[in-house]
From TrEMBL:
Residues 1-25 are annotated as: Disordered. It comes from the Bacteria. This is PD-(D/E)XK nuclease superfamily protein. It comes from Kribbella sandramycini.
Length: 361
């Protein structure tokens, strides 16, 4: 088993799409596995996330006139190059609205919690407003044992690989503190007759029990299904040492029924521990997610039974017509015919063509 606290000598190899390259169990050339977040993400409801991204992009455009100008120069949003340019403009607009500020803050706090769990110092330059977050994290995890931190694992039958945040071990110290504080022993959740989750109604948690853990600094409610699937896949995977291409059991043999999310909303100075039903999550990942990915790969759902081709060639684009205009009057005619779709970028091109025509005289 690889040491979960050691720094690998070499980066995990990946292909050009960022997918991990994994040596098959039987050996041979490495093959690309799907990242766990991508694999389970096919079942995530991204409606509200999409609306948030749209709002941030619109707000960012209002703050960056240069981005408005850059967008106005796009005359064919279906062109591959111009689509990439529009993507860059949209991302810059979202960033301008501080749409990525929360993500950056969350990533930084996440990294600092890792240093806490490894017993490393935090340094001298942590902004004071984030110290309460880190204090809350240290308090809520006090007494837990960290059996694994940022370990890479694989599930070979699904061809999925990913990095779990933590493998947490319950200790007598942690359980005693819980009992003193809450007046009862800590139990796993249970289910009622209708299958609904009932808190603290299952078997008592025992010293030495281990669970897959995840640190979350953002919202968890809307993404609960994805989190349950992700932790479920991790708990049912094997530790993977990419330098040897070797697999071994996960440290602590974590539960395949329940996982724990350490919820640390950035900037609030609060933390809480949440149980997640990862058995249900893994069942969804290994059936529903597999089915969705298989469905998306289907190429046999349509067949053309008739076709026709016109010999009429498409006319020149507005950009091409502006470049070929013989006079300022021709440019004015172009404008009058296309006024509704005319952009500031086309105006700039027309002015440049007028200057070019004047110079030619």
């Amino acid at each position: 088993m690889s040491d979960p606290f050691s720094t690998p000598q070499a980066e995990l190899p990946r292909d050009r799409w960022g997918r991990p390259l994994i040596t098959p169990p039987e050996g041979g050339e490495p093959i690309a596995y799907t990242r766990c977040t991508t694999f389970v993400g096919c079942l995530e409801d991204t409606y509200h996330l999409g609306l948030w991204q749209l709002r941030m992009a619109v707000l960012g455009m209002s703050r960056r006139k240069d981005l408005i100008l850059a967008a106005s120069a796009i005359d064919d949003p279906t062109d591959q190059y111009q689509k990439r340019k529009l993507n860059d403009i949209a991302k810059a607009a979202k960033d301008a609205a501080a749409g990525d500020a929360a993500a950056n803050t969350g990533t930084a706090i996440h990294s600092l919690t890792e240093r806490i769990d490894k017993g490393e110092g935090l340094g001298e330059f942590i902004p004071e407003e984030y110290l309460p977050d880190l204090k809350a994290y240290a308090d809520i995890t006090n007494g837990l044992e960290f059996l694994g931190i940022e370990g890479f694992c694989v599930r070979d039958d699904l061809r999925v690989g990913g990095t779990y945040d933590r493998i947490l071990g319950f200790t007598e110290e942690f359980l005693d503190v819980y009992h003193t504080k809450h007046g009862d022993v800590l139990r796993y959740p249970g289910r009622d007759a209708e299958g609904r989750l009932v808190p603290n109604a299952g078997d008592p948690v025992q010293p030495g029990d281990a669970v897959i853990g995840d640190v979350k600094t953002g919202h968890v409610d809307l993404g609960a299904g994805k989190i349950a699937m992700q932790l479920g896949v991790y708990a049912n995977s094997e530790d993977y040492d990419h330098s040897l291409g070797a697999r071994s059991p996960l440290p602590g043999n974590p539960s395949k029924d329940w996982g724990v999310v350490i919820h640390l909303p950035a900037g609030t100075g609060t933390a809480r521990l949440l149980w997640f039903d990862i058995r249900a999550g893994f069942e969804a990942a290994s059936s529903l997610a597999v089915g969705v990915h298989a469905w998306r790969k289907r190429k046999d759902l349509t067949h053309a039974f008739a076709s026709a081709q016109s010999n009429v060639k498409p006319g020149p684009t507005l950009v091409e017509q502006i470049a070929a205009a013989k006079s300022p009057d021709a440019l004015r005619v172009l404008f009058s015919m296309n006024e509704r779709t005319w952009t500031p970028g086309l105006t700039a091109l027309a002015k440049a063509r007028i200057a070019e025509l004047a110079g030619g005289n």
